[in-house]
């Protein structure tokens, strides 16, 4: 049978349930298992003009679409967040992770969730930063790397959701080395690249301009790259970020490592807005996601674009196939 992909349908008050239903009604070629409340998904399917006659998930059947029913804690209205359903959202993720661990699912695709309402509910163990950090904790993974793809780009981040003032201290030789090793390894094993070429951005304007605009390149980034090059990694940089994202430069690499969130992602989202994909590297499972939020103002309208979710499902299929091929 085809590998089963777990699609967690996300925040019930957002667009996740309806874009999941819209995708389920389209020709996607995958074996999709929708994780969520059956009544909720049926209601949101009607909003996009789709039927919801999906069978219950049976691991022994190769259905194009099936549903693994997990009930809401409280009725959900489009656009209205309810902390009572925060535990439900996390339950979807927990069930998907458990399914990947026991072999039921080959990958997880996630619709958007709302970090604020989960924190308001206080159901997470400590502050809830988002999907990426939660899945890392849930799988016991010390460090993960956020990679976004789209518009012909692959952009990974050395730091993720940090205030800008905290970024320089967070970039150490040890953390940068771990990030680059994870990125290199997963470009090989998950994307099938035999010798990945990674373009590394500098932190400061003009990559520090020989120390005149900051010394992080000289004291942290360059020594880390030199040490990893000695191990056989193909690393180009540190490069000035303002000229890195031009066609000629990008042709020299397979992925870019940006030093912080708003250094790399504005370019990628400009190139692929609405159809970008978020991939979590370093996990002991495959996870892809949309690159947008819950869009509460569109929830229930039937107007939300499922393009990013469709792209996330397609990439999950590709990564599952790549992981199944013998390594070179």
TrEMBL record:
Keyword Electron transport carried by entry: no
A Pfam family that the UniProt record links to this protein: PdxA
UniProt keyword Transmembrane helix, yes or no: no
Gene3D superfamilies named among the record's database cross-references: Isopropylmalate Dehydrogenase (3.40.718.10)
Similarity comment text for this entry: Belongs to the PdxA family.
Binding site for substrate: 131-132, 269, 278, 287
EC number: 1.1.1.262
Cofactor annotation: Zn(2+); Mg(2+); Co(2+)
Pathway membership: Cofactor biosynthesis; pyridoxine 5'-phosphate biosynthesis; pyridoxine 5'-phosphate from D-erythrose 4-phosphate: step 4/5
Cofactor comment: Binds 1 divalent metal cation per subunit. Can use ions such as Zn(2+), Mg(2+) or Co(2+).
Leftover remarks: The active site is located at the dimer interface.
Principal cellular location given in the protein's record: cytoplasm
Compartmental location: Cytoplasm
Function: Catalyzes the NAD(P)-dependent oxidation of 4-(phosphooxy)-L-threonine (HTP) into 2-amino-3-oxo-4-(phosphooxy)butyric acid which spontaneously decarboxylates to form 3-amino-2-oxopropyl phosphate (AHAP).
Gene that this sequence comes from: pdxA
Protein name (database record): 4-hydroxythreonine-4-phosphate dehydrogenase
Keywords from the UniProt entry: Cobalt, Cytoplasm, Magnesium, Metal-binding, NAD, NADP, Oxidoreductase, Pyridoxine biosynthesis, Zinc
Positions annotated to bind a divalent metal cation: 161, 206, 261
The reaction(s) this protein catalyses: 4-(phosphooxy)-L-threonine + NAD(+) = 3-amino-2-oxopropyl phosphate + CO2 + NADH
InterPro entries noted in UniProt: PdxA (IPR037510), PdxA_fam (IPR005255)
Source organism superkingdom: Bacteria
Subunit structure and binding partners: Homodimer.
């Amino acid at each position: 049978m085809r590998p089963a992909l777990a699609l967690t349908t996300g925040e019930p008050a957002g667009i996740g349930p309806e874009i999941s239903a819209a995708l389920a009604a389209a020709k996607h070629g995958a074996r999709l298992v929708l994780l969520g409340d059956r009544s909720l998904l049926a209601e949101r399917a009607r909003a996009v003009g789709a039927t919801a006659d999906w069978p219950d998930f049976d691991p022994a059947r190769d259905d194009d679409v099936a549903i693994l029913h997990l009930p809401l804690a409280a009725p959900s209205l489009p656009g209205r967040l309810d902390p009572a359903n925060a535990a439900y959202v996390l339950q979807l993720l927990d069930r998907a992770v458990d399914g990947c661990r026991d072999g039921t699912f080959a990958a997880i695709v996630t619709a958007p969730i709302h970090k604020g309402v989960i924190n308001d509910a206080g159901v997470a163990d400590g502050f809830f930063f988002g999907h990426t950090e939660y899945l890392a904790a849930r799988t016991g993974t010390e460090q993960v790397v956020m990679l976004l793809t789209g518009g012909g780009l692959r952009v990974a981040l050395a730091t993720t959701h940090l205030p800008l003032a905290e970024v320089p201290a967070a970039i150490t030789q040890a953390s940068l080395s771990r990030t680059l090793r994870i990125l290199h390894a997963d470009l090989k094993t998950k994307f099938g690249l035999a010798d990945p070429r990674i373009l590394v951005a500098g932190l400061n304007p003009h990559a520090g301009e020989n120390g005149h605009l900051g010394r992080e390149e000289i004291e942290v980034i360059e020594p880390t790259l030199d040490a990893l090059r000695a191990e056989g990694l193909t690393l180009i940089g540190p490069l000035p970020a303002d000229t890195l994202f031009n066609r000629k430069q990008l042709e020299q690499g397979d992925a870019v490592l940006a030093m912080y969130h708003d250094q790399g992602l504005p370019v990628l989202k400009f190139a692929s807005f609405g159809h970008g994909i978020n991939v979590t590297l370093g996990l002991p499972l495959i996870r892809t996601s949309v690159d947008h939020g819950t869009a509460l103002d569109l929830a229930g309208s039937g107007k939300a674009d499922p393009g990013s979710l469709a792209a996330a499902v397609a990439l999950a299929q590709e990564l599952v196939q790549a992981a199944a091929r013998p390594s070179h």
